[in-house]
Design brief:
heterodimer; A: mainly beta; Jelly Rolls; Cyclophilin; 2 domains; 7-stranded mixed β-barrel; 6-stranded antiparallel β-sheet; 9% helix; elongated; B: alpha+beta; Gyrase A, domain 2; 4-stranded antiparallel β-sheet; 4-stranded mixed β-sheet; 6 helices; 13 strands; ATP-binding (chain B); CT_C_D (chain B); 5-oxoprolinase subunit PxpB (chain B)
């Protein structure tokens, strides 16, 4: 009962709802980058929302189903095919035994999700199946998927949902809703006005840890550093060089840069799907 | 105890204590953190205790933010006796080659012999103010002024797991292989982070470094 990875794509990992409860030990939460898409994929195959899925980054995988399985694909459009023929996203799809599912590079979005009805049969590490690669923690052997991996899936006889849901639009630009961050009051009115006026570009340092933004240099308050304090997904830190970094799923648990705003959870999902070079703008909720 | 509870994103609160790094503030954070942890509040997913703050992450589906805020603000946190007792964790460190990568440089820079550096570094236990930045990484307080050493001009691309270093007013242990700019004066053979034991020490513990020989290092490494 497994799926066999024939081509691992660019950086494909197993993720679930996240590893909570160990942040006091310095362990990042990890979990889905785009929670909405992952939840949708799970819902389509009647899995619980936070069931483990395969998360693909920019370039999708190719796998063989060693038995008949039911999957749902959401997130970035990587033009999925079954045995060479296009298949629908946002809909439960039955894959026959020995069926080969393949993906291409993402035409829209960044992170693609494959939910398997019943879920992936891998052990939980510290309560979660999410992969945190830097500490070789969780997921499939604590690493990104590789060619030849046999990913066990749970046997199931459940029936998936028949209907197809509407695919969201992943645009190369996004308006991101945010709320005031812990150090909001330290920044001057002028600095904040410039921050919300600016259009930022997603820099090449964009990954599961965080997304660096290029554009204006944010005017820092006099006190441009804080005593190391907690970091959560969506925290927008301003570095001492005035560069905003949005902390994402694998963010370190603490940091010392000033925290200007926090993205809403839906905006974290939207941001995760904006590719390098994409444009974003912050809007105060 | 003086603190305020401020919203942090949509699903967290920040309990903010005095704007300082001090033992007094640390003990307040510790008492508050330990009590919240013991309570297992339904809907609270995680706590991140730091020098002078605690981040409380919660699930909006499970608990009303307003309810949690009122709860966090009104819980009578107390500094319990047992929380003030010192839990000392001994960490063996080999301060010799090939593990003490920068010992020669540090010795020259500080104008101290290797033996003096080891004696000072192992003299007293260090307070673990917090764990953060990376799994199992301890922020230790109480480094003797004589060992304050500037960071390396160019960080090493790879520091071995267990490396013990000095950086400005700090000392610490790298739990995993990472790039880093600390001056390495030794290495511990024991694992500070593993999935079986996510961290050997907790915030509020004390760490006592104990000097060991290369032979003892090898022996401990292989057990």
């Amino acid at each position: 009962m497994s799926i066999e990875i024939l081509n691992p794509g660019l950086s494909s990992t197993v993720q679930d709802g996240g590893r909570f409860g160990f942040q006091d030990k310095g362990i990042p939460v990890s979990g889905f980058m785009d929670v909405t898409s992952a939840h949708l994929a799970n819902a389509l195959v009647t899995n619980e929302a936070n069931t483990s899925v395969i998360e693909m980054t920019l370039l999708g995988i190719k796998f063989k189903a060693n038995q008949a399985i039911t999957i749902a694909i959401t997130g970035a459009d990587m033009q999925p095919k079954l045995n060479g023929k296009s298949i629908s996203m946002y809909k439960a799809i039955e894959i026959p035994k020995d069926g080969i599912v393949s993906f291409k590079g993402a035409s829209h979005g960044v992170y693609g999700y494959i939910a398997v009805l019943g879920g992936l049969k891998i052990p939980r590490v510290l309560g979660s199946k999410s992969t945190y690669v830097p500490a070789k923690l969780g997921g499939f052997k604590g690493r990104v998927l590789q060619k030849g991996d046999l990913l066990p899936v749970l046997h199931n006889t459940l029936k998936p949902i028949k209907s197809k849901v509407k695919a969201p639009d992943f645009l190369p630009s996004a308006q991101l809703l945010c709320v005031k961050g812990p150090e909001w009051d330290l920044f001057s009115t002028t600095s904040k006005a410039a921050f919300f006026d600016a259009v930022f570009t997603i820099g090449k340092d964009a990954n599961r840890i965080g997304i660096r933004l290029e554009g204006i240099k944010v005017i820092l308050p006099e006190k441009d550093e804080i005593i190391s304090s907690g970091i959560i997904k969506g925290t927008v830190q301003i570095t001492k060089a005035g560069q905003p970094i949005v902390m994402m799923a694998d963010a370190p648990t603490t940091g010392g840069y000033v925290r200007l705003v926090n993205l809403t959870e839906k905006s974290c999902d939207a941001l995760s799907q904006v590719p390098i070079g994409g444009k974003i703008q912050f809007v105060l909720k | 105890m003086s603190f305020k509870v401020v919203p942090y994103g949509e699903s967290a609160f920040l309990i903010q204590f005095a704007d300082e790094i001090s033992v007094e503030t640390h003990l307040q954070v510790k008492a508050c953190y330990q009590q919240l942890k013991k309570m297992h509040i339904h809907g609270v997913q995680s706590l991140i205790p730091a020098y002078n703050s605690i981040t409380v992450m919660f699930d909006q589906q499970e608990i009303e933010p307003k309810t949690l805020k009122v709860f966090l603000e009104n819980t009578p946190y107390k500094l319990a006796e047992e929380e003030l007792t010192k839990n000392i964790v001994e960490i063996p460190v080999c301060y010799e080659a090939p593990y003490a990568l920068d010992m020669e440089y540090v010795s020259g820079e500080l104008n101290l012999s290797t033996k003096e550096i080891i004696d000072i570094h192992t003299a007293d236990p260090y307070l673990v103010y917090m764990i953060g930045f990376a799994p199992g990484f301890m922020y230790l307080g109480g480094l003797d002024k004589r060992l304050h050493t500037p960071r390396k001009q160019t960080p090493r691309l790879q520091i071995p797991a267990g490396a013990v270093g000095l950086a400005d007013q700090q000392t610490g242990v790298y739990p995993m292989i990472t790039p880093g700019g600390w001056q390495i004066i030794g290495q511990t053979p024991i694992s500070l982070f593993s999935k079986e034991k996510p961290s050997l020490v907790a915030m509020g513990d004390y760490v006592q470094f104990v000097s060991i020989s290369v032979a003892e290092f090898e022996k401990l490494k292989n057990t």
